[in-house]
Amino acid sequence: MMTPTELYALAPFIWLSVGVIVLMLQIAFSRSLNGACWVTNLTLLVALYSMVGHDPAGIQVTPLMRIDALGLMFCAVIICGSVVTSLLARDYLKQRPAENEEFFLLLLLATLGACVLVCATHVASLLLGLELLGVALYGLIAYPEKGERSLEAAIKYLVLSGAASATLLFGFALLYAATGTMDFAILADKLDTIQVNSNPIIVLTAAAFILSGLAFKLSVAPFHMWTPDVYEGAPAPITGFLATVSKGAVFVVLLRWFIDGQLYEFRGIILGLSAVAIASMLVGNLLALRQDNIKRILAYSSIAQFGYLLVVLIACGTLTESIPLAREAASYYLLAYIITTLGATGLLTLLSSESARERDHIGDIVGLFWRRPLLSLGFTVAMLSLAGIPLTAGFIGKFYIFKIGADAELWALMSAVIVGSGLGIFYYLRLVFNMTKNPRQVHALPQQTSLEGRSVLLLLTLLILALGVYPQPLMDYLSAIL
Amino acid sequence: MELANLIVIFLFGGLLAWLAEMMMENSARWVSLLTIALCSAYLWRLVGHIPAELFHINPVANQAGTWLMHHQMNWIPRFGVSFELAMDGLSLLLIVLTLFLGVVAVVSSWAEVDHHRGFFQANLLWTLAGVIGVFLALDLFLFFLFWEVMLVPMYLLIAIWGHEGKAHAAMKFFIFTQVSGLLMLLAIIVLVVLSAETLGRYSFSYFDLLQNDLSGGVATMVMLGFFVAFTVKLPGVPFHTWLPDAHTQAPTAGSVLLAGILLKTGAYGLLRFTVPLFPEAALQFAPIAMGLGAAGVVYGAVLAFGQSDFKRLVAYSSVSHMGFVLLGIFAWNHLAIQGAVMQMVAHGLSTAALFMIAGALQQRLHTRDLGAMGGLWHNMPRMGALALFFIVASLGLPGMGNFVAEFLILVGLFQSMPWMAVVAALGLITGAIYSLRLMQEAFQGKPDAHRTLPDFGPLEMTVMIAMVIGLLWLGLYPQPVLDLAQPVINSLTAEVQL
Amino acid sequence: MIPFLFYMAAAIALVSTVLALTRSNAAHALIYLIISLLAVAVVFFLLGAPFAAALEIVIYAGAIMVLFVFVIMMLNLGEEGDQRERGWLEPGVWIVPAILAAALMIETVAVISMTEGMTSGEMVSAKAVGIKLFGPYVLAVEIASMLLLAGLVGAYHVGRRLSERRRGGIS
């Protein structure tokens, strides 16, 4: 039986589910794009508001979920990400008239899945959250009425994601066979005794399967193959959602499992993760160099970004004292990454909202700087943030990575980060360069996007700068709650 | 907060210039000039308030009162990062140089930049803001921030208003500096983490880090992180390859800023951070560094001789001249460091002037190829005379600043490593050869009768004359400049003996 | 006795799965798949999870597989299909599945008629499963309902789009 306190802790989830049902009924009675968008945003805001005043120490609600500060913070981030996505998607969908209301239904469901994921402390909730997010995303990726691309992308994601889920499930089954528990916190104790008593080969195999499954969702090398195609094929707002909310939520749950379960104590896991991290930094950055599609560039860039982020997990293995810093670093980096990537894909969504075609080719932004100075400046800031130039949030994130890498003395990884960042500069600046090129013919396009879309983008830009210029409040907050 | 205002003025000036151009055609460059004037006036007022005796006290690292100005404010206490700015004679000198060359850059862009003028001036002013920040920042985090941030407007200057190969050149410039910058960031963080063990807290402050003498292999690795970053910017062989491209492809104002000021940030970094923070490691490394410097002197001169592109030739001559700075800094005695500081100022002036002439020629002839020039003295006597002056200045003719600088460096160098001085002196000879070749091919020879070219106008002449006066002053009466830098050099050499 | 039965059922599951994978004829593969699922159900039963075993048979071997068989059967319409289906009744085709199925049946009868208890482990009754599901795992049930909804909405949207396109193609 659930106590009122537990129910209260679950309020955001309950509100999201209520929103799903209300929206479904609304669609059944009368279809309206604006109506669906407002119901979605209202739901998200109510869910966001319902998070205020929760105990930051956290409360365990059934063995499945722990509503603590880390979870709540990322729930808030995910919900804000969904608000941004839905606001931008409205203009985008207006340009593509069809039965578009289910888009918001799926978006709410995916948000719910991501929120469950960041609060998961149990294998069952992890898998269910992951599947809820994934299944809603298949629908969202395949959403556009026209265009074979998106269908192809959705099928690719469906098949590969299914395989990854199976791998994950098998890994958890093995881990359950070895330890007899599915709870992350109990896992740590069980693993301790196993490590003392016997050969941990079954644990290592299980961890390899689980990490492969999660690595697929995070799209780190060598599990990255799907990313560029799916990013390219998905409608622009969903590319942003996939890159930020979905990946961020998966990383948070990985962080929980990895640290709560104390898997960093296994040398083999740390070595494997290091190889994966270095491979991602190099593969992601190298393959991005020759792309001409902005979504593909962002896809490869995200592969590299998650390679950098893995350093945080690896550092836990070499230096146990750095675990609190690791949580803080991961949270800051993820926040910076999410805001930045939402800003970057937001521009693509805005551009694509002005035509029936996806405007994501590098040629589509030539000369943009002179036509839309403010928006282009926002995009430039986002690119600089991804490249890790100071005064942006991305730099503070990278600073954390360097700090934690220096603490744990991970020199090989640090060299890879430097080489990777150097390569990264090339394609980030290439986008900026193309925006500043003088276009052959200047065609002044009528402003078709709504005020909300543009102001959301501006807000994201300001956030990137604010987190880069004055990071102390967020740092204090993170180090206090984690 | 006064020191921060110097930077803030430029940031707002840039924004204002951009907006002004949207309102009114051609107003941005006036806004730029006004901004620089305002900043200079402000600096004048600040310096006026400093008690005169402070100019003669050797600034001691951990006594803020002995510096001309010092300001510290918490910024990111979580990691011991503070907003710490300080000024001593060296930074004051370089800031004055920056402001002066800022004016030169604005004037050289006067007629050349023909599109998006507002944004051009904004970037120009923002670059200046970054450079001043580099010269003032004494918190290593803050220093790194300015170091990187000044790249962005500079990149845009080259990428938007550059010449035919701008995309490639701008990219190369950015990647070289950024990658070496990241090495420096890692080195800074390692230094901070290591010194936190003795200090008991994280601190990025120069004053705190200076007290912690690192030694052994770690010190060498960390020192190399700094050294590479600064040597890339300087540029020293073998990290110089970005420079000829960037200088050649940049618009004139960009080349002026690059050669005049940005290169000096590298020298400043070596002098301020690399050697004082790691004296022991720097001592061991000094022969290699000086070897690189001497190699740069000779190699730059030889390559300069082989160029047929006016700007490329001047660019390679910069490699050669900045090699002297590297030599001077790592010889680490009074004379040599004085020479290095002198070289920073004198080279800034003479090269900026040469790039301005190159830019003026390109604007008139639409080529930088020396083969297409010749006999230009007849067409433009004023420009020819000025070119002759700056060319002989840069080859080190006595009476001009560059001679004083190179002479001091060679004398100082001879005291510590005589044979290195011999190699470096070779650079003087080759310098004379390529400089005179430049003069001959461009301005002498048979004039093209069909060419009528406008000579320098009054605005350009004013700036040029100012630079002529500056170089003559540095050459004939260098004492004030040396006096200004002397306390800093005293305290540097007193703290650190190589 | 119990371990022997367990390993036998597990072996049948393995063999029939391998055979299902290697068949080139979809109908044959399905038959092996059904046997594999039945064998897994027996394994569940022996492990003391009769409820899971029943679900395995009712949902997988029953509902899902029968749907599959129907779909495949409907794809083979016409004279040619009849011809081919006649071929399926050759003894070479059905004899192996029949033997495996018979073995499973014998096992089941043996288990049910055993006196010393059905399992070597702890019995988990349907009631225990229910209590778990609506006790500590109640959230999982709720999330699963949302998961089904997401699948439904997504499938509806994509499916409608495909059927509309087909209709558009005909007209």
Describe this structure in words.
- The complex is a heterotrimer of chains A (482), B (498) and C (171).
- Chain A starts with a helix and ends with a helix.
- Chain A is built from 20 helices and two strands.
- Chain A is 77% helix and 1% strand.
- Chain A has a two-stranded antiparallel sheet with strand order 1-2.
- Chain A has 482 residues and is mostly helical.
- Chain B is mostly helical.
- Chain B has a domain at 287-498.
- Chain B contains 20 helices and two strands.
- Chain B has a two-stranded antiparallel sheet.
- In chain B, strand 1 and strand 2 form a beta hairpin.
- In chain B, helix 7 (166-199) crosses helix 10 (242-249) and helix 9 (216-233) runs parallel beside helix 12.
- Chain C has helices at 2-22, 26-46, 50-75, 79-87, 91-113, 126-133, 138-170.
- The chains are: A mainly alpha (482), B mainly alpha (498), C mainly alpha (171).
- At the A-B interface, helix 17, helix 18 and helix 20 of A face helix 5, helix 6 and helix 7 of B.
Biggest contact: A-B, 33 and 31 residues
Helix content of chain A: over 70%
Number of E-state strands of chain A: 2
Number of DSSP strand runs of chain C: 0
Outline type of chain C? flat
The oligomeric status of these chains comes to: heterotrimer
SS content category of chain A: mainly alpha
- The helical percent of chain C reads over 70%
| SS element count, helices of chain A | 20
**Average pLDDT of chain A, to the nearest integer?**
90
Residue runs with pLDDT of under 50 for 5 or more positions of chain A: none
Query: From N to C, what is the helix and strand string of chain A?
Result: HHHEEHHHHHHHHHHHHHHHHH
Rg on CA atoms of chain C, Å: 21 Å
Helix run count of chain C: 7
